[in-house]
């Protein structure tokens, strides 16, 4: 038993007839293309395991067709997994019967979709209150709760509007409010901002960050956009052909990409915005050093001014221990590499 908010163990989804007979046979080791050619079945998710800690923002990213949507839908059995285990908040989703599953979806895991899925004939307030209504919460109480959440997502004044009177960004705020109204322990986002204009999209990302600070909910966020993943994620799972290629913090994914697929994703990222000093520092050489002391988990860009303003190397610490030194050259190496990309 772990205290993870979400545990996914040996999860498989194979689409097609006879899919459940493939796992455990040599055919399960075939590549996606070979399995399709031999059996007609398509691997959506292949033997995926990971844990998400309470309060963590866990991003799943990969190119189109890599299996992100299938994975997130398997978490609440909107798609039935072929094999494996999913435990949310101590509840084994894979063993739940229909009514337990409905209850789990209502109270433990809410989903925000790209196509908002709002009820067009209902006002904002009743869209947000819908989940509470289904749970049998009385009209007065659910409207009060919904009004609170509408305010929380910045939609005060629009309670009585209908979805088609709102912009895409605002509709997605309603989607977010509706998911939050159930007070779930886990929020699942399936590419929620992909259809929005870049500026609105940025606003919504900031909104998610703000809500996360305020509410501390555990989040699983699907995206194909690395910038979005780096901005939001405490950790990022990178998928290809249904499989995990790498799981790491943003600086690990950028600083030590697992293979060329990940390297390709990260090659255009401004490294100084993501890498921490840990990735650029040198070994301490035993010489006495004075001046500024910086934390190893500080982002290079944020530390740059201090380092560049100081003559000679600065100490980098982990707690009380000096773990390295950085000087102008170490900082400039990252920044100059970045400029050569531009
Ligand atoms: N119902 C289905 N039947 C057969 N194959 C499917 C089905 N749903 C998805 N697939 C296949 O499973 C693989 C993973 O698809 P999935 O939609 O999960 O990828 P994705 O990473 O979410 O892509 P996108 O970003 O385009 O949504 C793809 O090869 C897809 O064609």
From TrEMBL:
Keywords: ATP-binding, Nucleotide-binding, Transport
Species this chain originates from: Nocardioides mangrovi
PANTHER family from the UniProt entry: GLYCINE BETAINE/PROLINE BETAINE TRANSPORT SYSTEM ATP-BINDING PROTEIN PROV (PTHR43869), GLYCINE BETAINE_PROLINE BETAINE TRANSPORT SYSTEM ATP-BINDING PROTEIN PROV (PTHR43869:SF1)
Protein name: Glycine betaine/L-proline ABC transporter ATP-binding protein
Gene3D superfamilies: P-loop containing nucleotide triphosphate hydrolases
Protein family according to the UniProt entry: Belongs to the ABC transporter superfamily.
Domain ABC transporter: 30-266
Annotated Pfam families: ABC_tran
One GO MF term attached to the UniProt entry: ATP binding
Domain of life: Bacteria
Keyword Nucleotide-binding listed: yes
Matches recorded under CDD domains: ABC_Pro_Gly_Betaine (cd03294)
């Amino acid at each position: 038993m772990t205290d993870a908010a979400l545990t996914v163990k040996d999860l498989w989804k194979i689409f097609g007839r006879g899919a459940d007979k493939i796992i455990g046979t040599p055919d399960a080791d075939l590549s996606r293309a070979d399995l399709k050619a031999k059996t007609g079945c398509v691997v959506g998710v292949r033997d995926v395991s990971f844990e998400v800690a309470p309060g963590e923002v866990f991003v799943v990213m990969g190119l189109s067709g890599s299996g992100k949507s299938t994975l997130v839908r398997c978490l609440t059995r909107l798609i039935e997994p072929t094999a494996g285990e999913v435990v949310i908040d101590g509840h084994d989703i894979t063993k739940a019967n229909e009514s337990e599953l409905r209850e789990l979806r209502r109270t433990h895991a809410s989903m925000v979709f790209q196509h908002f899925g709002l009820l067009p004939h209902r006002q904002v307030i009743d869209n947000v209150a819908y989940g509470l209504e289904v749970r049998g919460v009385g009209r007065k109480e659910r409207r009060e709760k919904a009004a609170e959440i509408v305010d929380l997502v910045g939609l005060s004044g629009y309670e009585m509007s209908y979805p088609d009177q709102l912009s895409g960004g605002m509709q997605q705020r309603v989607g977010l409010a509706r998911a939050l109204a159930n007070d779930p322990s886990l929020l699942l986002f399936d590419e929620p901002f992909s259809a929005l204009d870049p500026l609105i999209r940025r606003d919504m990302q900031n909104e998610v960050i703000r809500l996360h600070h305020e509410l501390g909910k555990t989040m699983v966020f699907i995206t194909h956009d690395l910038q979005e993943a780096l901005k939001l994620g405490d950790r990022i799972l990178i998928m290809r052909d249904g499989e995990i290629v790498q799981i790491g913090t943003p600086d690990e994914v950028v600083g030590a990409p697992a293979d060329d697929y990940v390297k390709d994703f990260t090659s255009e990222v401004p490294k100084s915005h993501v890498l921490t000093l840990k990735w650029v520092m040198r070994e301490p050489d035993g010489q006495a050093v004075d001046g500024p002391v910086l934390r190893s988990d500080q982002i290079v860009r944020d530390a740059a001014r201090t380092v560049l303003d100081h003559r000679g190397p600065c100490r980098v610490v982990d707690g009380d221990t000096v773990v390295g030194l950085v000087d102008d050259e170490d900082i400039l190496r990252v920044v100059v590499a970045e400029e050569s990309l531009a």
